[in-house]
């Protein structure tokens, strides 16, 4: 059964203005298979899925499901054909009940054609018990539950539609390890029932934990389809990038700035606090240093960065920047003082989807110079083109809408937004989350280069190995407090783990 071709996409072509998004791409999904779709941001993964689900109309190529040619003209038609998608951002209605979400548009009705609420709630419970959520109150609003549960409800809805193909697009980005394990158990159950699952993720270890096969795309072209046993991790990364990636492990700033006594302190925090999130926190950061903040989720990493920047005003302690007290009443005060901040949630707090690359990139500089001192268009284009080139942003034009770019290229645009302001102190909160390994390497190299040129950087990442490649000094946080400060010979993964687990004792 697992050898049968459930879904076949043949010679798929798709072009956007100035960009060949897909070029003669083939993809085959078998019954009872979990199939990883891999590639850098901009490789064509999202486009291929949107072609399959009817969001985009392909230029050429054929799609077969169960041996029959299909031509989905909308996600609704794809769903009717047995193809369902669960996205990273769950696209259900959080203001209605769990049961209503599962049966939306297909509610069971009684003889009077009224919704049979009792039957719907009972069936919803049965479906949810199948995905391990037997204790969920299906009458409560979906928004009352965590993202993990919402994703399970989305999968339950797909199962209720009797889907043949389930597409999971970055479903684990917001899940902890236990939630990922539960999701994998559901995926294996679906696989055992003969469903085909397309799994899109940037987490390599998850691919090898749950998948049977891997298809790799690069620059809109098919690089190959591989059985999981035939593609070691290093080979996968090389296939995705198209070149050797030994530089990933050799990346590290050997700029031992703390040993240079003549280097000035650019930022100093003394007993900085924010009620409910940060316990008294002290740190000294020197010019040209890359300082990392690490710790488990909820440790206070992002809250600390926001307090330093002024996005959340600290309610205790002292903060000095370039030797002067910094009492920012708003982020604009921090920008004018020479700071820049890339927040963790780029979609909610950074990207303005309906504006162009140029407009997104210029907005912080315009705020810094003042709304009554409009930047000439020639200057805007000069700066935008400079950073498009410097950051290797893939786009046909600076006037392309940012929402048309891949996630990694969107992230580069937002980094460019802050580099345009020429900051002395740059805070990057999870700058590589949800982007491919190639773009991650580019951003890590950029951080090291900026530090070598004299910029000071605060770098936050959930990936400890990434931090170790990038920072000079690492502040370890737990439960809102700094429990360790590591550098030089102590800057190892083992030391970080010990600090997270037991403080600096």
Q: Count the E strands.
A: 20
Residue share in β-strands: 15-25%
SSE-based structural type: alpha/beta
Major β-sheet profile:
6 strands, mixed
Word description of this protein:
By secondary structure, the protein is an alpha/beta fold. It has helices at 45-52, 75-80, 98-103, 117-130, 147-160, 177-192, 204-210, 233-241, 247-250, 301-309, 331-337, 346-349, 357-369, 377-390, 407-420, 437-452, 464-470, 493-502, and strands at residues 5-16, 19-30, 33-38, 60-65, 68-70, 83-86, 165-169, 196-200, 213-218, 221-227, 265-274, 278-286, 290-294, 316-321, 324-325, 339-342, 425-429, 456-460, 473-478, 481-487. The longest helix is centred in the middle third of the chain and has 16 residues, at 177-192. Helix 13 (357-369) crosses helix 14. The strands form four sheets. Strands 6-7-8-3-9-10 form a six-stranded mixed β-sheet, sandwiched between helices. Strands 16-17-18-13-19-20 form a six-stranded mixed β-sheet, with helices on both faces. Strands 2-1-4-5 form a four-stranded antiparallel β-sheet, covered by helices on one side.
Short description:
This protein is 35% helix and 25% strand. By secondary structure, it is α/β, with parallel strands linked by helices.
């Amino acid at each position: 059964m697992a050898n049968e071709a459930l879904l076949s996409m043949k010679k798929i072509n798709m072009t956007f203005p100035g960009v060949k998004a897909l070029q003669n791409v083939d993809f085959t999904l078998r019954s009872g298979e979990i199939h990883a779709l891999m590639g850098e941001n901009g490789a064509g993964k999202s486009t291929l899925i949107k072609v399959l689900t009817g969001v985009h109309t392909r230029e050429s190529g054929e799609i077969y499901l169960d041996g029959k040619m299909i031509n989905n003209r909308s996600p609704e038609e794809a769903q009717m054909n047995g193809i369902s998608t669960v996205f990273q951002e769950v696209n259900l209605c959080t203001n209605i009940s769990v049961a209503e979400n599962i049966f939306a548009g297909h509610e069971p009705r009684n003889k009077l054609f009224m919704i049979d609420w009792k039957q719907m709630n009972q069936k919803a419970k049965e479906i949810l018990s199948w995905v391990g959520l037997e204790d969920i109150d299906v009458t409560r609003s979906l928004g009352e539950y965590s993202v993990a549960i919402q994703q399970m409800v989305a999968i339950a809805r797909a199962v209720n539609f009797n889907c043949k193909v389930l597409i999971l697009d970055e479903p684990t980005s917001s899940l902890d390890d236990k939630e990922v394990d539960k999701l994998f158990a559901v995926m294996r159950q679906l696989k055992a029932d003969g469903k085909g699952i397309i799994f899109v993720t940037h987490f390599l270890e998850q691919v090898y934990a749950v998948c049977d096969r891997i298809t790799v795309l690069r620059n809109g072209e098919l690089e190959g389809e591989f059985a999981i046993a035939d593609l070691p991790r290093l080979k996968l990364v090389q296939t995705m990038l198209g070149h050797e990636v030994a530089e990933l492990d050799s990346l590290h700033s050997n700029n031992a700035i703390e040993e240079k006594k003549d280097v000035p302190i650019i930022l100093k925090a003394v007993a900085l606090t924010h009620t409910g999130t940060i316990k008294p926190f002290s740190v000294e950061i020197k010019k040209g240093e890359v300082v990392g903040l690490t710790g488990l989720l909820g440790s206070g990493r992002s809250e600390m960065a926001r307090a330093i920047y002024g996005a959340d005003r600290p309610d205790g302690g002292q903060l000095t920047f370039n030797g002067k007290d910094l009492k920012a009443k708003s982020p604009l005060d921090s920008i004018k003082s020479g700071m820049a901040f890339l927040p963790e949630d780029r979609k909610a707090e950074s990207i303005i989807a309906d504006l162009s690359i140029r407009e997104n990139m210029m907005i912080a500089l315009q705020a810094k110079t003042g709304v009554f001192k409009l930047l000439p268009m020639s200057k805007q284009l000069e700066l935008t083109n400079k950073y498009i080139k410097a950051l290797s942003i893939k786009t046909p034009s600076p006037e392309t809408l940012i929402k048309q770019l891949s996630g990694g290229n969107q992230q580069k645009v937002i980094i460019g937004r802050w580099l345009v302001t020429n900051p002395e102190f740059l805070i990057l909160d999870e700058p590589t989350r949800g982007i491919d390994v190639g773009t991650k390497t580019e951003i890590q190299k950029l951080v090291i280069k900026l530090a070598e040129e004299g910029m000071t950087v605060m770098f936050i990442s959930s990936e400890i190995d990434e931090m170790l490649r990038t920072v000079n000094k690492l502040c370890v946080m737990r439960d809102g407090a700094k429990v360790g400060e590591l550098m030089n010979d102590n800057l190892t993964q083992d030391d970080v783990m010990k600090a997270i687990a037991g403080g600096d004792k």
